[in-house]
Amino acid sequence: MKEQKLRPQLVADHNSLERIFHRPENEQSRNVLTKYMEQILFGLHDFLQKHVGITEEIPLKVLAAQFTSSKIARTPVKKLADIITEIIEEIAPQAVNVSSPYFIGHMTSAIPFFMVHLSTIVTALNQNPVKIETSKVVSVYERQVLAKVHRLLFDLDETFYNIHIQKPESTLGSFVEDGTLANLTALWVARNRLLPSTSDYAGADRDGIASALNDRGLRRLTIMVSELGHYSIRKAAGVLGIGYDAVTPIPVDSANRMDLKVLERTLKEHHRDPETSVMAVIGIAGTTETGAVDPLPSIASLCREFGVHFHVDAAWGGPVRLSERYRGLLKGIEVADSVTIDGHKQFYLPMSNGMVFFRDPKAMDAVAYHAAYINRPGSVDLGIRSLVGSRSATSLVLGSALDIMGAGGYALLIDHGIETARLFAEEIIRRPMFELITAPELNILTYRLVPGELRGSEDPKEPANEEVRLRLLNKINIKVQRMQREAGNSFVSRTTLRRSGRPDTVVLRAVLMNQRTNHKILNAILDEQEAIYRNRIAPTLRLNKAMGLTP
Ligand SMILES: *Cc1c(COP(=O)(O)O)cnc(C)c1O
Fold first, then answer.
1. Contacts of 91 (CB under 8 A, 6+ apart)
2. In angstroms, what is the span from residue 342 Cα to ligand 1's centroid?
3. Cα(138)–Cα(393) distance, rounded to whole angstroms?
């Protein structure tokens, strides 16, 4: 940051405090505050328009050297006006322009501009839905928003919603910080329902996992999820006292969907073992790496057969239910016991908003907690059956966005993402220098750059050559991705696909969710990758070869 000029007129005193906690006292200060809001809206907006690139080319180390002060200044050093200008002019350009249509590498993207207004309202109202006394109408409003998304997922009948939407004893779902906490909440409920308190035992929640297992002659619980499960599942297993290793990864088929035969076999094995109990099976509706959707209806029937909690991690894919054209891709989600959705992904909400839903409006009773000072038994406070305590009223943002966009508006975004991903896949297949690795089921695909000289030289008699070829391809793709990111014009992410029985494969990963990303932009991104290979990577490979070195 710039060296701060000394501003002797800035003092911390009661007069200043009076001003910042009260409404603007006159026309002039009103105008000043309005001007600030304008600056935020249009200053940032202009910035995001101008910088189609992703970020400026400054190493993180250089940036880190600018933020090394650990002292809080005794006297105020900046005015709000300075802060706004500084963030717009100095922070924003070094941040990541996730709203660029050339930024197609992550699940974070452009958001509709009205989200800024909605977030401002939420901040200005500053409600706390943990308790009726700090949120009142917002808590019943929130119940309505939760019911709308519940209905989108589970599609139960009108009578069901009439009964439960505002019934204090019913809980259709819960807002949390993110998908990680949504998954944790779902698994927390599953654990407590599996090990409840009875007349003989205190449950896992009160007595701890060790003695709850002991009481029932169990040695372990297990959670099954495909080997593409999000790492939040393992975190949850750790927090819930079950242990990371209790997560049993089920292999995937060639389309990256959970292998049902292995799932069935594993369920049977665990069923026969009297010391193991299966806490939950998780189907993924849009894996983080490839966007694949597990065969939810078949997983659901296996769960029913074995009496196991069926959770669907739809953090990414959930909103696809809004699209009439593609909602069928999530078939089976409607019979899940619980579902995770991230609002900050395909509901296009600002960071951060996670949600978890339960088909059974009584399910969350398993985690109800009555703290005497904050809520009484029978109270309607939302904090009773929730992992989080105080939180912001993000239901206002989601509820308003649903009104502003309509299911139809969201469907346009979803359809555009899926259809653009398909176009991109076709283009990748058309180009000789690329290989499509995972075709898009939703709006995520993976591919890699395969130069002609490294194409299809598979020789079954020479597995060693094949290994060298794969290693070289991995290296090339790591380099291409890094060089493109560092150039800062566009961004595609990179991941390593690790599948049991197959060699590790470094791939480029594209997430298509920006409605301004079009065919021309996608071609430009591929052109840039080809140019990086041709001009910067191929020459070094040739040099190494000429010198007799394996690259
Ligand atoms: C993004 C994601 C999560 C975790 O979400 P966060 O909001 O980052 O905590 C979990 N599961 C899947 C499938 C995801 O894509």
1. none
2. 7
3. 7
Spatial separation of the C-alpha atoms in residues 334 and 311, rounded to whole Å: 11
Structure tokens given for 344: 């900050």
Buried b (16+ CB within 10 A) or exposed e, 126-145: ebbbbbbebbeebbebbbeb
Mutational test site, ligand 1, from 175, 296, 340, max ligand atoms within 8 Å of CB: 340
Query: pLDDT (tens digit, 9 = 90+) per residue, 174-222?
Result: 999 999 999 999 999 999 999 998 888 888 988 899 999 999 999 999 9
Query: How far apart are alpha carbons 347 and 356 in whole angstroms?
Result: 14
Are 284 and 319 spatial neighbours (Cβ–Cβ below 8 Å)? no
**Which pLDDT score, from 0 to 100, does residue 97 have?**
86
Ligand 1 lining (C-beta closer than 6 Å): 107, 178-180, 183, 230, 232, 284, 287-288, 313, 315-316, 342, 354
Closest CA to 292 of 327, 250, 253: 253
In angstroms, the first-to-last Cα distance of the chain is 42
Distance CA 203, CA 192 (A): 7
Cα 186 to Cα 281: distance, rounded to the nearest angstrom: 11
